[in-house]
């Protein structure tokens, strides 16, 4: 009777919170519910509420959340037998929730997972749950949800356990059961009455265990799980997002590690070969459908190729021909209009440049091949530096400024691999085109030009400066001579002044330009929007 009375009070408070119109009464109801969750009586009341078939979803969700919070913060209040009794009761509630609201199923599974992490006397959560939830499609869905959240709860910072116990429990529940989980997932895929949503849950579960690090490539290389993940890349919505997570998880596991034993290294080699073939097909499809693919979908595919590139960067340098499709797909990603998608690739280009310079000589075929890749990147990168025609908000300006510096780092990578003459030459050509010149001669009126084109190329010249030798005598003299012919636009003047400031070491080796540069800088003080750049350039000159 006490539990029923308390349950009625909880329901009244929930009704006041979710359905009431009086703000003060809603705040009072919320405060009362928070206080109730801290009481000892909340254990039995929440459990009783979950067992009441007539209660609505909101009330049951509150009860499940209450139990989960109490499990995390105070499961020791129950004692060993009390915790096992609660487990049995929550398993019953989960069976009753089959086929119902996914939100309630998830909360119950989270609570059970938190019990599994903390209650050592529950010796075999995987075996117990698999024994009870493999009878039909709705039960399997509950089992897959439990298995998906179990590794995540081991990483939940709110679940506080002793370090030694954590290691032992993690090994017992995850490490020793990873192979069994893979077998179960494959079994689920082979059941004819399971499809669609259940297959997505298989991928979610697979990704969760991959992320925790308990599944090895040897466990999955002869299973249909990787094929399922790639097939799901053709789907839409949440299924696609789940597939991206799964594929990225597998790709991450293929990273080379000096501590790999012979078996692990062989498993990675086999998996890389399989994945490279699948990614080549994905890259071809992405290229042929690029104009029709949803931007968010394209961003997900860019994430996949970026993960592949970063995982295989050493392999790419050793055998660039084998991974040509992956590298080409990453260049395609750089061509996209989405700043977020483009930005994903920045770290990869830096890694690839580092490994290329460290492990190849300038005459190596691999260096020459990769130099062509980085040379092609120059024009792509500079195109991204152009200010948009539309007016930017303050936030958008800050984001674009940060993005431009990321592009600038890519341009430095281009100089390191493709060489300063080639990369500066491309930037020079684009500055010339931007001001209407070709080979030093005007080709069109300045009224037809967009300042953004020349400004982007000047920014690129400045960005490359860190990797350009002060003794460069081929392209930089042409660029310095061109500065005097720039159209009278403050944005161009600002960018050109910063170029002078960046190349002061070069000017030290070419003193014949000092007089012109000082005059150029001094003229900049006459324009308010250029004065700051002039002050900076003068400081370094």
Question: Would you kindly provide a written description of the structure presented here, covering whatever features stand out?
Answer:
It is built from 29 helices and two strands. The longest helix is centred in the middle third of the chain and has 27 residues, at 262-288. The chain starts with a helix and ends with a helix. It is elongated, with a radius of gyration of 31 Å. β1 (437-438) and β2 form a beta hairpin. The chain is mostly helical. A two-stranded antiparallel sheet has the order 1-2. Helices cover 74% and strands 1% of the residues.
Categorize the overall geometry. elongated
Q: Compute the average pLDDT.
A: 91
Helix content range of the residues, please? over 70%
What's the helix count? 29
Strand order of the largest sheet: 1-2
Detail the poorly predicted runs: none
- Rg estimate, integer Å: 31 Å
| Total count of strands | 2
What is the CA-CA span between the terminal residues? 86 Å
The biggest beta sheet reads: 2 strands, antiparallel
Strand content: under 5%
């Amino acid at each position: 009777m006490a539990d029923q009375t308390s349950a009625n009070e909880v329901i009244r408070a929930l009704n006041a919170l979710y359905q009431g119109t009086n703000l003060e009464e809603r705040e009072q109801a919320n405060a009362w519910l928070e206080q109730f969750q801290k009481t000892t009586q909340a254990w039995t009341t929440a459990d009783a509420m979950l067992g009441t078939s007539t209660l609505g979803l909101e009330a049951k969700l509150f009860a499940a959340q209450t139990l989960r919070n109490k499990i995390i913060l105070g499961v020791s209040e129950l004692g060993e037998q009390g915790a096992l009794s609660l487990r049995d009761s929550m398993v019953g509630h989960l069976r009753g929730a089959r086929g119902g609201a996914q939100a309630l199923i998830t909360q119950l599974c989270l609570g059970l997972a938190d019990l599994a992490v903390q209650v050592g006397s529950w010796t075999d959560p995987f075996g117990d749950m698999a024994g009870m939830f493999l009878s039909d499609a709705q039960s399997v869905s509950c089992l897959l949800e439990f298995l998906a959240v179990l590794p995540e709860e081991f990483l939940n910072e709110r679940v506080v356990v002793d370090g030694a116990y954590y290691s032992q429990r993690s090994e017992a529940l995850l490490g020793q059961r990873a192979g069994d989980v893979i077998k179960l997932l494959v079994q689920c895929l082979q059941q004819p009455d399971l499809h669609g949503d259940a297959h997505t849950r298989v991928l979610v579960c697979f990704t969760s265990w991959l992320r925790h690090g308990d599944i090895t490539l040897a466990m999955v290389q002869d299973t249909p799980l990787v094929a399922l993940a790639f097939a799901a890349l053709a789907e839409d919505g949440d299924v696609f997002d789940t597939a991206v997570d799964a594929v990225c998880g597998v790709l991450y596991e293929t990273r080379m590690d000096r501590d790999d034993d012979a078996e692990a290294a062989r498993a990675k080699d086999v998996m890389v070969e399989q994945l490279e073939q699948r990614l080549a097909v994905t890259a071809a499809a992405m290229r042929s459908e690029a104009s029709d693919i949803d931007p968010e979908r394209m961003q997900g595919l860019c994430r996949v190729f970026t993960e592949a590139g970063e995982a295989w960067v050493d392999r790419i340098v050793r055998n660039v021909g084998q991974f040509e499709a992956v590298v080409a797909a990453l260049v395609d990603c750089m061509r996209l209009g989405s700043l977020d998608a483009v930005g994903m690739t920045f770290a990869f280009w830096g890694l690839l440049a580092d490994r290329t310079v460290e492990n190849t000589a300038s005459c190596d075929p691999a260096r020459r091949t990769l130099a062509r890749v980085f040379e092609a990147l120059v024009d792509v990168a500079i195109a991204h530096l152009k200010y948009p025609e539309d007016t930017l908000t303050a936030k958008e300006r800050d984001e674009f400024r940060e993005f431009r510096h990321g592009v600038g780092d890519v341009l430095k990578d281009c100089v390191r691999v493709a060489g300063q003459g080639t990369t500066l030459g491309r930037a020079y050509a684009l500055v010339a085109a931007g001001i209407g010149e070709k080979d030093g001669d005007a080709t069109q009126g300045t009224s037809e030009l967009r300042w953004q084109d020349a400004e982007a190329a000047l920014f690129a010249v400045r960005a490359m400066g860190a990797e350009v030798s002060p003794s460069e005598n081929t392209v930089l003299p042409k660029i310095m001579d061109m500065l005097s012919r720039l159209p009278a636009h403050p944005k161009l003047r600002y960018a050109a002044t910063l170029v002078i400031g960046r190349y002061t070491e070069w000017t030290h080796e070419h003193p014949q330009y000092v007089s012109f540069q000082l005059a150029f800088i001094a003229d900049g003080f006459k324009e308010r929007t250029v004065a700051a750049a002039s002050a900076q350039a003068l400081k370094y000159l």
